[in-house]
Amino acid sequence: MGSRSALLVLATAALLLSACSDSNNGNPTTPAPSSPAGQSSSLPRAGAPNIDQPLDTAAVEADPCSVVKNDQVQTFGGGAVDRSRVEDLSSGKVCTWVFANGLGTISAGMNTGERDGLSHLYALNAQGSGLTTFKPSEPIDGYPSVIFANGGERSYVCNLAIGVRNDLMYTIVATPGTSNPNRSDPCGMATKLGTYAIQHLKAAQ
Description:
Elements: H1 3-15, H2 58-62, H3 70-76, E1 81-89, E2 92-99, E3 104-110, H4 118-127, E4 133-140, E5 143-149, E6 158-165, E7 168-176, H5 186-203
């Protein structure tokens, strides 16, 4: 899929508030930037876990590629990173790491387009609408996470949201290509990127 088509997918994902996926060599991704100073007293809700130690995300919102370095991505991505780039969406900035030799992509950013953080996903699940996959997963370095989708599930795509504050989630979309050794476990790939990201954010506090 070309860069222009990929950006259309990204923009659509942002409007849907979370993330979506596209085809093999596509570039699925999710929103990012701009952070409120504190956590809303009305959050969490709908059964979402409380974030006891909210993280300052301002630097990563401004430069989403700074959270994980290319050489770190190569340790779990299944191949060499050809390039990384920032996608400036209406909801903020997202970093996309593109693997060499058609081995796919992994993209991530702070989803400030949705001010309820993980509570938004929990509420959609409780309502029985808006999500076709909702699976709370193991905490990532102490921060709660959810595997989710809003349609178009594919075995080689994983959408993962990590709560970094009650009102903010870091969203990752992993899409390993056909020859990528992670093809059968995209969520493992997303979890590893999430672990590096949370470690980076915690170290910067």
